[in-house]
Design a protein that fits this description.
With 359 residues, the protein is α/β, with parallel strands linked by helices. 36% of the residues lie in helices and 18% in strands. The chain is globular. The termini are far apart.
Length: 359
């Protein structure tokens, strides 16, 4: 009788374990012969257009060219809308769906000013905004970086929503210590541009794809940079343009393209819908959010041959800061540690699950 009970218990345990496995989402996919990111996305997300979600989550392995996958490569697939299932190393569905609380900022004190001050701002979704879970993707990463680095004086976030004051005068005069998140221009080829000349940068807290969004009724090819010469690209006023010139492109500096610069991202997509520009050039998340807001999913197509560029979001500190080099080294050490322990990927997975579900 005891033997029978033990057997039943073992079977029950096995069924329980199988049920637990069935409740996981995301995980590791091993590339097979004939695979492409679009095929993998179609198979596991039921949406070939989500190839960018796989690419972005595996940038270190794949690099800039989405076709650079090879048989046997292991790709991390984030849990999005309950998919994919059945992969090893998945996340518990309950944990993947959990939502952290928005950030509540306590009033500053004299004591908090003695801590390492991190300058941030709202209205840069999905990367940072106090209304987002844990303040957004980059704030969540930065929080864990600093906790892991554990500077003796501690650290504190300072929310200042006037972006125009961040670099000058707040960071340039060391009124606050470091700022996040900022793009790093092509400093190797343009060392005299303002940010390169005046600021030091950390390793990237996050890297994102910069994509070409085109009109489905007016498609364009992007197999090489030469395909873009002569076209009219749209990027809002105030946004960076260094990626349009780096790597010998010189699209803007040598007037190889027409660059249209309206006031907002939405303006760019409306011009695209009207056929007045050939493509909108923007990071994937901002672009997809605008498409959803404007209800333009049936109008806009993302060029899937390759991204225009891959841009990192960095911490920066003014070169005149007396502890600047030390602060960057501390941040880089903390970032390296959370990547080694897997904490970094867990944070990214949680935010990507939420972000993609919103799209």
């Amino acid at each position: 009788m005891l033997k029978k009970l033990l057997t039943v218990a073992a079977v029950a345990a096995g069924l329980s374990q199988g049920a637990a496995q069935a409740e996981t989402c995301g995980g590791v996919y091993k590339v097979k012969r004939g695979d492409s990111l679009s095929l993998i996305a179609d198979q596991h997300y039921k949406n070939a257009g989500m190839w960018t979600a796989i690419h972005q989550n595996n940038l270190k392995a794949i690099g800039k060219n989405p076709a650079s996958i090879r048989v046997g490569m292991k790709l991390r697939l984030t849990c999005i809308n309950g998919l994919p299932t059945g992969l090893t190393g998945g996340t518990d569905v309950t944990a993947a769906a959990a939502t952290a609380a928005p950030v509540v900022v306590a009033p500053g004190t004299a004591a908090s000013r003695k801590k390492i001050s991190i300058l941030v701002a709202d209205e840069y979704k999905p990367f940072m905004d106090r209304s987002l879970p844990n303040g957004g993707l980059v704030i969540d990463v930065m929080q864990q970086v600093m906790k892991t680095a554990a500077p003796a004086e501690g650290f504190a976030f300072h929310w200042v929503n006037d972006f125009s004051a961040h670099l000058e005068p707040l960071l340039s005069n060391a009124l606050l210590d470091v700022g996040v998140p900022w793009l790093r221009p092509a400093c190797e080829s343009t060392p005299d541009v303002y940010r390169c000349k005046n600021f030091d940068f950390s390793e990237p807290m996050f890297e994102m794809l910069i994509l070409l969004f085109t009109n489905k009724n007016k498609p364009i090819a992007f197999n090489s940079d030469a395909d873009i010469v002569g076209l009219n690209l749209c990027r809002p006023a105030g946004y960076y343009t260094h990626d349009l010139d780096k790597g010998g492109r010189n699209w803007v500096s040598q007037s190889k393209i027409t660059l249209t610069r309206p006031d907002s991202v939405n303006d760019c997509f409306e011009l695209l819908g009207e056929g007045k520009v050939d493509a909108v050039v923007i990071n994937e998340f901002t672009g997809r959010a605008a498409i959803k807001e404007l209800n333009m999913k049936d109008v806009v197509k993302i060029i899937d041959t390759r991204p225009l560029s891959i841009e990192g979001l960095h911490v920066l500190v003014h070169k005149t800061h007396p502890r600047g080099k030390e602060l960057i080294a501390t941040i880089n050490a903390g970032l390296k540690k959370i990547k080694e322990t897997g904490q970094y990927q867990k944070i990214i997975d949680v935010h990507m699950t939420r972000i993609w579900s919103d799209f």
